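FAQ
Q: What does a multi-component entry look like?
A: The components come first, one per line:
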Amino acid sequence: MKDTRATAGTPTLFTLTTGPVNCYPEVLSAIGQPVLYDYDPAFLAQYETVVLKLQTALGVSTIPVILQGEPVLGLEAAAHSLIAPGDTVLNLVSGVYGAGYGEWLRPRAQAFHEIRVPYDDVIDPAAVAAFLGAHPETAVVAVCHHDTPSGTINPIAEIGRVVRDHGALFVVDSVSAWAGMAIDIEAAGADLLVTGPNKCLGCPPALSILAVSDRAWAKMEANLAVPRGSILSILDWKEAWRAENPFPFTPSVAEINALNAALDLYLAEGPAAVWARHARTAEATRAGVKAMGLALWAAREEIASPTCTAVKLPEGVDETALRDRMKRDYGVVISSGRAETFNRLVRIGHMGPTAHPIYAVIALTALGGALAGLTGRNIDIGAGIAAAEAVMRG
Ligand SMILES: *Cc1c(COP(=O)(O)O)cnc(C)c1O
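Then the predicted structure of the entire assembly, as tokens:
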């Protein structure tokens, strides 16, 4: 009989990626609300409400900023706004995103330094302390919280303590970690934490979210090189949250409505419960991966992310062929590696609506089945599912 799947394939049934992720149904219906004029009093009130709700969700004492573009806008804006002429900058690199961020920091820094570790490992806070001891002039330190193309979590609370003791400003890319795991932004001393609603909050990619400390505002206000009247300006949006103040330009009305719905879901479920289901989904996935005889990418399981599981590609397996097979035969889409991690791992996302342990069973079935089909290897999918289910049963 002809295998019709070979030509047609299964439609995408499960998007188990590391972002963009599929959205919560409530978020999708919020996008379909009427798009109000941005100066309609109802939208002005809505914008203020969303920013204040966001402040609650972030757990910070300062008013956060929403920039009208997906999170790379927030990251680029942070580099432009926080680095002043003459600054010495330290970038911490444990993966592709951390390394990429250096390309925005370097041109603005008077002196630019990096601490690099292999991409299956994380930054050691003691190394940061040693560097700052030797370079007391360091003004800005940047780190990627969850370097998504490696699925590893940097110890930002410990790094932040070192940076705060030294007095430098601390920039954190927490795009794919925030809202998927516990993070006390102020205790970690993060002066500019950049995140977005398109990962663990289950929204489409369209907005940047920035938690800004008083120290960061002061630095930006004193910075002669700070962007103003620009898409990259953070300062332009400082007062825009108040209903009586103007917007610098038209905000993304539909996406603000979507963010509002996502924040309502997040706060109603309770952040701790949301983080717990992310952690349990990742734990179930890791247990299943190991039980099927596959290896995790992370050098040590303690540093593996609760929002993404990176699985080492077995020798000789082509990642594109593997992911194509998962899509064709199972309707499951997962993420590839990026740059240095491309064709060395695949990633199963546990973010927002897919951060429920039952999705581990789906991902493991598709991954194990596709690998067995491609390589002819005997993969014990049943053992993988049993191990995941044992975590679910608790
Ligand atoms: C997703 C993500 C971003 C935003 O970049 P995209 O263009 O959405 O991929 C930035 N940093 C990290 C760590 C991310 O995971």
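Q: Is there any commentary attached?
A: Sometimes. For this entry: The CA atoms of residues 52 and 63 lie 7 Å apart.
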